[in-house]
Amino acid sequence: MKKKQFSLSNIMQSKITWAVIAELLILLVCFIIRPDFFSIKYQPATGMLYGSLIDILNRSSEITIIAMGMTLVIALAGTDLSVGSLVALSGALALKFLRWDVLVYNTPGDYTVKPFILVILVPLAVCTLMGLFNGFMISRIGMQPIIATLILMVCGRGIAQIVTNGKQFTTLYSPFRVIGQGSLFFLPMPIIITAVVVLCVSLFVRKTAFGTMVESVGINPSASRLSGINSRKIVMICFMLTAFLSAISGLITASRVMSNDSNNFGINFEMDAILAVVIGGTSMSGGKFSLAGTVVGSIIIRTIVTFVYYFGIVSEATMAFKAMIIILIIVLQSEPVRKRMSKLGRKKATGGVQHA
Asked: What is the pTM (predicted TM-score) of this model?
């Protein structure tokens, strides 16, 4: 069996290589301008490490978790625009079960009206059912993914408003606070949750045949069906998983602020998740995907935002900065640029000698 050779040419051809290079360049600029950008300190009062790098990992958690599912959806040549609304719905359901009726329990405190297990399980179950709805409309009815998920994107926030009667609930319940503000191994809890999610999704996708089936369906659904793959089932699982992960993200978001905001929770999360997947090297046309690249893409997006805030640039410029850097990364990942870099890598490896 011929061993796969790792050369500079092959490395430069990889899209994830350019995503990593882009992240390192952004961090280098941060270090040049402010060397203390890399400083990490321990605060005994909270038992957590603090610093810009920790903040980047912490604040990218929600997008990274959603993007794990979005990667599989995009690998199927689809997209899911409903994830932001599901984040809002998850937060609304969690706060509803914590407070239930703000007219009766009108003072927020360290209590929960309903069992805490329901505060966690109900949002996860309801959002997963929403993902089942998306998968059914796409795989069984034949609706385009962008249309099916757009329906839930629009009505999801409406459902969240109905759940809370249009009110914003607030809580001080300590166990719920742990999800978004707690710590483990000196790291913020969202980082730990994200690491567990990434590990579980990676094992599920890469240590079973599921990942191969997703790529097969993404490349050619008809041929996949003829080869015995139940493409409809694969589509439904991917959309359900994405919705389930969106619910986890919603719980983290609500726990960070200890309240719900159905109008603003999850705004633009779908766009950031899609960008993270694309920056990570997964093609929107479907097929092969990279979960590791998606994680890098999510971190890049949060690094840009942190860069803007950390250096006192007006917040209105965040989208412009994000757009410029993302455009640069996507250009670097383009086929002509990667081929050019690959040729330079081969030329360097052979000492400038061109072989016939």
From this structure: 0.89
